[in-house]
Amino acid sequence: MSGQLLVRSGPDREPRSSHLRVRLLLEPEGGGEASALDFVDQRTFGHLSVQDLVPTPDGAPGGLGTELAAVPEPVAHIARDLLDPALRRDDVVAAIRRRRTGVKRALLDQTVVSGVGNIYADEALWRARLHYARATDTLRRPEAHRLLDAAAEVMGEALVQGGTSFDALYVNVNGQSGYFSRSLAVYGQEGEPCPRCGTAVRRDEFMNRSSYTCPRCQPRPRNGRW
Ligand SMILES: [Zn+2]
Predict the structure, then answer these.
(1) How many angstroms separate the alpha carbon of residue 117 from the centre of ligand 1?
(2) Any residues with CB less than 8 A from the CB of 185 and at least 6 apart, and which?
């Protein structure tokens, strides 16, 4: 939940954290200096394990940087990441529209599409002008595409800025915090003006967390699924 994978090389390789749990030494093929991949975990909620690989359900490569069409068995049921080049966008749209749930629940469902968390879901819904409780079975195909486009866009922008860090534990492999939190339109902005229309942003309880919307840009649906 809050651990980090940190890459260290050169003089930077000395262990610095008392929370270092596992260190893997990565030696380049054909020689050269090894880098360390450190698994640092302050709250000890995380774990590392060695798992068998199984074929990917769609036959496409298991991840970036490999042609191997295989993934670790425990994650084989998880859908492809929204930014995965092998993701079939039409299949995701069809899967969303087949559900009988609210659109944000579908977006957060890792068996539909993975990688979209609570923050980016709220930002994507705001960009696509959709309320989180909109019933997925009433969603038109272009609306679902618009939402996925918005989510990919917001995640792409967040990656460029190093992600969204709310505390010092959320860092990239170089140990740096992201600053996308400064670019958030609605998430965490309760009472602040919507950047598009100026209406005060609203916060609702949602799945033990929060959903942030602009009441004007994202009106509540009449037959929503909460
Ligand atoms: Zn607005």
Answers:
(1) 22
(2) 123, 126, 127, 194, 195, 196
| Concatenated DSSP letters of 162-176 | T---SSTT-B-TTSP
User: Domain residue spans in the chain?
Assistant: 1-48, 52-76, 79-226
The b-or-e profile of 55-81 (16+ CB within 10 A means b, else e) is ebeeeebbeeeeeeeebeeeeeeebbb
Residue 167: which pLDDT band, with cuts at 50, 70 and 90? Answer: low
- What is the Cα gyration radius of the chain? 20
pLDDT at residue 166, rounded to an integer: 62
How much distance in Å is there from the Cα of 188 to the middle of ligand 1?
Answer: 15
Lowest-confidence segment of 17-26, 142-151, 170-179 by average pLDDT: 170-179
- For residue 31, report the distance from its CA to the centre of ligand 1, in Å: 56
Measured in angstroms, how far is the CA atom of residue 191 from the centroid of ligand 1? 12
Q: How far is the CA of 214 from the centre of ligand 1 (A)?
A: 5
Please give the CATH topology (third level) of the domain spanning 79-226.
Helicase, Ruva Protein; domain 3 (1.10.8)
More confident residue, 222 or 178: 222
Q: What is the pTM of this model?
A: 0.87
CA of 35 to the centre of ligand 1 (A): 47
Looking at residue 144, its pLDDT comes to 98
- CA 193 to ligand 1 centroid distance, Å: 8
For residue 183, the model assigns a pLDDT of: 85
pLDDT digits (tens, 9 = 90+) for 96-120: 999 999 999 999 999 999 999 999 9
- Distance from Cα 125 to the centre of ligand 1, integer Å: 12
